[in-house]
Amino acid sequence: MFLKNLFTLWHFAIFIAILINQSLGSEDLIKRDVSLDRNNVPKNILVTSMVGRSRIQRNYTAQSIYYRSIPQVIFENDYIGLDSKSSEVNKAFLEDGYEKLLAKVRKISVQSYVPFYNIYTKVAEEINADLFFCDILMNYPCFDLAWKLGKPAVGIDCGFSLIKPPPSYMSDPIHGCHANMENESFYNRFRCEILVPLKLTWKVRSTIKGLNAQRAIVDVEPHDNMFGRTSNTLMLSNSFYGFEIPHANSPLYQEIGPVLPDTFPSLTPTLESFLTNHPRTIYFALGTIVFISPQNVITLLKSFLELINQDVIDGVIWSTVRTDTSDSLQLANSSAQISSILNNNHPHIHVSKYSPQYAILSHENTRVFLSHGGASSSHESMYTATPMLVLPIMGDQPSNAEKLELAGMALRISKWDLNVNDIVSKVKRLLNEESFKKNAERLQFLAKVNSKRKYRAADLIEIVLNTVKYEGVEDENGRFKINNENLLRDWITPDLRMGFIRGKYLDVYAVAIILFLVLCGVFGYALWKIARYTYIRFSENRISQKHLKRKGE
Ligand SMILES: *[C@@H]1O[C@H](CO)[C@@H](O)[C@H](O)[C@H]1NC(C)=O
Ligand SMILES: *[C@@H]1O[C@H](CO)[C@@H](O)[C@H](O)[C@H]1NC(C)=O
Ligand SMILES: *[C@@H]1O[C@H](CO)[C@@H](O)[C@H](O)[C@H]1NC(C)=O
């Protein structure tokens, strides 16, 4: 049936093609002009990110080799202090609860405001920045500077839905809720929709106050939105449906992910031969920022030994990155096996500080990725169809972990409750149940198709720059100044200008409800009147009939 339909459709298409061809004559065709007029369009873009080595410049594996052609200014954020072991953030990775870390992140964003504002100002002047491309996490100075200089800003969100309020059914495990609230109880939905945001608003009061004090220092007007000066700016989201929970977006918020480089470092000969000789390998890496406690390292290593012992897997590749193996060595209590792993003497467990992650994940013998679930790692895992065991630490990771599990390609473990049996049984499931690999392959297709959208992102940025040419006021140097509030008026949904009540049509619905109630009232009243009238008539009738009867006797 289907085939027949397809056939008919095909013939129909040919028929139309012939018709068109006849009416035009194939010699008369002209090519569509696809060239763009780029004359006088501003071109200098300043890309900034406050946190994250792998977010914009991937310093590890090999000094930003992916984006070598782009001039870079790299500096350590002293307030984050990733390089100092005793820094507050580093301690927070190991602490209980996500709340403390969030509080620290808020404190850091206030402390680093002025230093970063000054750095951005200097660089923007040097390169004559025409557009600010801001990684949104903590990056208040980027949006503020763009606003102050009258330059457009475009934000990029690396998996964190920080900018616009998400629909009610989306929440976040870092607030004790879930990424998807679909099947939650009334109590949980009430808590996550009403109580959590109220608590959060209360908590960020001091952050906003602190930020405004910092803004005053560099002569930027205060702003009361906890997300910064981001209203009416284009926000790009480095994610995709299939992984992300489905929801409707404003035109100002566009999905363009997964953003992946086109080339990656290849396997070293050692890794190549290790993988060839270990057909069931687990790759273990926690990205470039987070790490786990030495106790948890020991638990994971014991699990690896147990998995190899039970012949579930036969090899492990571990990129330690920021995890300090010497701390774990002290905890090993001269256990020969654990020590041999930590000294990289174990024949089936390969340990190194950095490794070419994408190349390892691409290898067919890498069966499971034990990861923290950061956005980049998750994207690479989906792109290579590698099932994951996720050990989230902070930020968007707990939410990513839930999404990956919902998508059916991953299982989660918790840093507060790591135990060998749980890990062993989950790895067994990941390897033995076919659904994990199948779902990973389903997501792989989505990731591959959607990875082309980075070119769409570049187009969107170019559209913003081109709009500046028409909306901007030109100064004596031929440079444009714009107002970020209405630069993108073609993309701003009218409800934002209509105000809360009109924008949500609350006035219309209120009147509709009142009318409905009034009508119900009138109808009810009339019904009551009729009923009463009938009742009285009826009883009167009966009484008079009784009278008549009595008279008759
Ligand atoms: C990043 O790479 C540069 C260039 O090799 C190096 O000088 C710098 O120390 C690295 N930064 C970090 C934070 O690792
Ligand atoms: C909620 O339950 C429905 C029906 O059992 C299921 O199809 C759906 O995937 C569940 N959603 C989540 C987020 O667990
Ligand atoms: C070493 O001893 C500590 C404290 O008794 C314990 O917590 C840890 O698990 C031991 N390490 C190993 C590898 O058995």
What does this structure look like?
GO terms for molecular function: UDP-glycosyltransferase activity. Mean pLDDT is 88; it is low at 54-63. Helix 8 (294-309) crosses helix 9 (325-331). This protein has 3 domains: 45-261 and 453-500, Rossmann fold (3-Layer(aba) Sandwich), CATH 3.40.50; 269-449, Rossmann fold, CATH 3.40.50; 502-531. With 553 residues, the protein is α/β, with parallel strands linked by helices. The longest helix has 47 residues, at 506-552. Strand 6 (281-285), helix 8 (294-309) and strand 7 (315-319) form a beta-alpha-beta unit. It has a 6-stranded parallel beta sheet, with helices on both faces. A 5-stranded parallel beta sheet has the order 1-2-3-4-5, with helices on both faces. It has helices at 2-24, 88-94, 99-111, 113-127, 140-149, 186-217, 269-277, 294-309, 325-331, 336-342, 357-362, 375-383, 397-406, 420-432, 434-450, 453-471, 495-503, 506-552; strands spanning 45-48, 131-135, 153-157, 234-237, 253-255, 281-285, 315-319, 349-352, 366-371, 388-390, 410-412, 473-474, 480-481. The protein contains 18 helices and 13 strands. One 2-acetamido-2-deoxy-beta-D-glucopyranose (NAG) binds next to loops.
